[in-house]
């Protein structure tokens, strides 16, 4: 059977109707990643294909071709619905060139095995130390932003391959925001140029401030700080909430007359003593844990959240298993 080749002109016209790689790939019966590559090449050829305007109240593609559902302000809250299935949440990857952490390898393996319906990378996927407001310490070596973007694209491609049908969401983290903040501060006139927005480089991942599952489970990068943040976050929000930022990897249940809900810090996919953190932590002892979180939903209700924990060099613990990655 011969597969009809979709022309650039068809992609350009289709993009006018629904600027979404997921919807267009489904319409043209193409792989989503293949279409994203084609869209990127068309843009670099000089054709102005606008990214979906996440500031619009109508941003957010549904499964229906050309249909748009209401979302909040930029980047907004992405509402997700899951009756039965799993959600994989990895946070604070701080991907650097040449480094693939144990937690990342485990994340890919778990994605292959459990086939989650939703994958959420909960912010600070990149580190961007050269864009930090903090001055370098001595002559420390910091990777170029372009190299970090390339490394992150490679790591996310491994996740995309492991779970190709999963919905992929990326709540922005404070380190991620450094990229656009630097450009907006120094060259605001570039606002509508393709490539100056982080999402331009990762077209399969839907950016947002927060994702909400079934109307009562929130996932966002950060709210409160301190060792009691998971508990305080769920007390403040009145619902289960999963954050990152603190790298602590823990689940804190809270029960009252309304039932039990959970506050959780999703840890870090980086090595807590990796080079990303050498200088500003001064190699002090850290109450950080490398790992990630998996949520399971049955009949629309979330079961007790599960933690996948890096217990040693190249070693991961989950349920009754310990294995090397």
Care to describe what's here?
37% of the residues are buried. The longest helix has 18 residues, at 145-162. With 325 residues, the protein is of the alpha/beta class. The chain contains eight helices and 15 strands. It starts with 7 loop residues before the first helix and ends with a strand. The protein has helices at 8-17, 21-28, 32-44, 102-114, 145-162, 177-186, 229-237, 278-281; strands spanning 77-80, 85-90, 118-121, 167-171, 206-208, 210-213, 217-220, 240-243, 250-256, 259-265, 291-298, 301-302, 306-312, 315-318, 321-324. It folds into two domains: 1-73, no CATH class; 75-324, Purple Acid Phosphatase, chain A, domain 2 (4-Layer Sandwich), CATH 3.60.21. β11 and β12 form a beta hairpin. Strands 2, 3, 4, 5, 11, 12, 13, 14 and 15 form a nine-stranded mixed sheet that branches. Strands 1-6-7-8-10-9 form a six-stranded mixed sheet, covered by helices on one side.
Judging from the principal axes of the Cα atoms, what is the shape? globular
- Series of H and E elements: HHHEEHEHEHEEEHEEEHEEEEE
Percent of residues in beta strands? 15-25%
Number of helices: 8
Q: Roughly what is the average pLDDT, rounded to an integer?
A: 86
Q: Helicity range of the residues?
A: 25-40%
Q: What is the CATH H-level superfamily of the largest domain?
A: Metallo-dependent phosphatases
Radius of gyration: 20 Å
What's the end-to-end separation, in Å? 39 Å
Uncertain segments of ≥5 residues (pLDDT<50)?
A: 52-74
Q: How many beta-strand runs? A: 15
* CATH 2nd-level architecture of the largest domain: 4-Layer Sandwich
Q: Largest sheet, described in full? A: 9 strands, mixed
